[in-house]
Amino acid sequence: MFVSFFPRPKQFFLSMIVWALLAVALWYGVVDGLGNRLGFAAPAADAPVGVGMLWSASSLWFYLYFLVCVGVFGGAWTIVARHPWSRWSVFGTAFILFATYFQVQVNVAINAWFGPFYNLIQAALQKPGSITLEEFYGALSTFAGIALIGITVAVLTHFFVSHYIFRWRTAMNDYYMANWSRLRTIEGASQRVQEDTMRFSTTMESLGVNLIQSVMTLIAFLPVLVKLESNITELPIVGHIPYPLVTAAIVWSVVGTALLALIGIRLPGIEFFNQRVEAAYRKELVLGEDDAARADPPTVEALFGNIRRNYFRLYLNFMYFNVARYGYLQTDAVVGYFLLAPTIVAGKITLGAMQQILRAFTQVRSSFQYLINSWSTIVELLSIYQRLRGFEARIHDEPLPEIETRDQQPQAT
User: Fold this and answer.
1) What span, in angstroms and rounded, lies between the C-alpha atoms of 9 and 223?
2) Residue 285, Cβ neighbours under 10 Å: how many?
3) Using the 8-state DSSP alphabet, how is residue 56 labeled?
4) Residues ≥6 apart with Cβ < 8 Å to 253
5) Among 340, 322, 345, 315, residue whose Cα is nearest residue 412
6) CA–CA distance, 132 with 367 (Å, rounded to integer)
7) What dihedral do alpha carbons 382, 385, 389, 392 form, nearest 10°?
8) pLDDT at site 404
9) Do the Cβ atoms of 264 and 375 come closer than 8 Å?
10) Spatial CA neighbour of 211 closest among 360, 41, 13, 67
11) What number is the average pLDDT over the span 214-223?
């Protein structure tokens, strides 16, 4: 799955994490301040609200730093481990990281725009005639400029990511077909090469991009939230605590993630067996197209009965999971207002400030809730990974995973 596309996957991903952490530490410890001292980067706060925030001097300084870091990292891996797909796996990954970061910065710019815009609305509603139509339309045109850039970058990024993922699927397909003589005897081998590689690549597109976006959003919005929450004096029930909204976002998200992970712990195994029984049924029908002795009614009925039992088991487990998930998400929609209740009632923030705080809190909270929002997709990915892992075991002459040799899964409770 990974060795076909990435050079030395374990070392590559480990070095990428270490290099990213080192680059972040170097940026905040040295490079950011150095740019200011040398006059290459003005403070971001000096940039006006609007598209200017995206290419302010400090932003351009960071873009240059990112390009240098990518060049050093990619160049080193090109020398250390040559790989036919390195242009896509190494530099393509770097481009996706940057494009995702840029889209997060668009959200930061929009969040900054919300404050003065809602304050403008509040002023107009409190004192008729205090603002002009030109001012109002001017504020809307500022948003339109930010949104236009965001839409353009999002479309181009999605186009690139689609090609990136298909290249990954191509690499997996070539790798498995090169070892087809050893893989053809595994149950559902053709489905695993044709369908599972496709599903793996498309699922990784969704999960991978969302994970990167969650991390980038967290990095971008945590400082924003810390700055905005300076007006929050206390939280309901617990009273005054340091960094109240950041702490609340972490606690609320961790509790929800742990709860849903516990309830949905059976789902990956059930989904794996769904793929197994579907493959067995499909294989029998395909054989029946050329052999009248195959796909007879008793066999087909038994195979479809396996499908029915497994799906009913999946539906039951998803019912438990969805009760908890939807209940949590509905509560999640109003948790920000609940936390701000003492501050709102005391009249200590304006409407614009409240909107900025709520949007920043939502961004941070959603980043921490990556597993909650993606759990159903993760379940599907885990089942696909388990099926393709059987290929990996056969290629490297390793024992098949235990789930591959299990006749049927235990009954769900």
Assistant:
1) 33
2) 13
3) S
4) 365, 368, 369, 372
5) 315
6) 38
7) -160
8) 54
9) yes
10) 13
11) 80
pLDDT in tens, 45-59: 455 677 888 888 888
Going by C-alpha positions, the residue among 46, 149, 41 that lies closest to residue 103 is 149
Whether the Cβ atoms of residue 160 and residue 99 lie closer than 8 Å to each other:
yes
For residue 383, CA distances in Å to 141, 200, 304, 405 come to 47, 10, 20, 15
Q: Quick one: pLDDT at residue 149? A: 93
pTM for this entry: 0.71
pLDDT, residue 62, reads 87
What is residue 47's DSSP assignment? S
pLDDT, tens digit (0-9, with 9 covering 90-100), for 288-345: 887 888 888 888 888 888 888 888 888 888 888 888 888 887 888 888 888 888 888 8
| Single-letter code of the amino acid located at 369 | Q
Residue 411 has pLDDT above 50, yes or no: no
Among candidate residues 112, 85, 79, the one with its CA nearest the CA of residue 168: 85
Tokens for 135, please give them. 């001012």
Paired tokens of 372: 């909650």
Residue 398 pLDDT grade (very low, low, confident, very high; cuts 50, 70, 90): low
CB 111 within 8 A of CB 360: yes
User: Lowest-confidence range among 51-60, 85-94, 292-301, 371-380?
Assistant: 371-380
Q: How far apart are CA 258 and CA 372, in angstroms?
A: 9
SS3 content of the chain, % helix, strand, coil (to 5): 80, 0, 20
| Rg from Cα positions in the chain | 26
The residue behind tokens 């759990």 is 375
Cα first-last separation, the chain: 33
> Tokens 């481009």 correspond to what residue?
95
Q: Give per-residue pLDDT as tens, 101-137.
A: 898 889 888 888 888 888 888 888 888 888 888 888 9
Burial degree of 391 (CB within 10 A; 0-12, 13-18, 19+):
buried
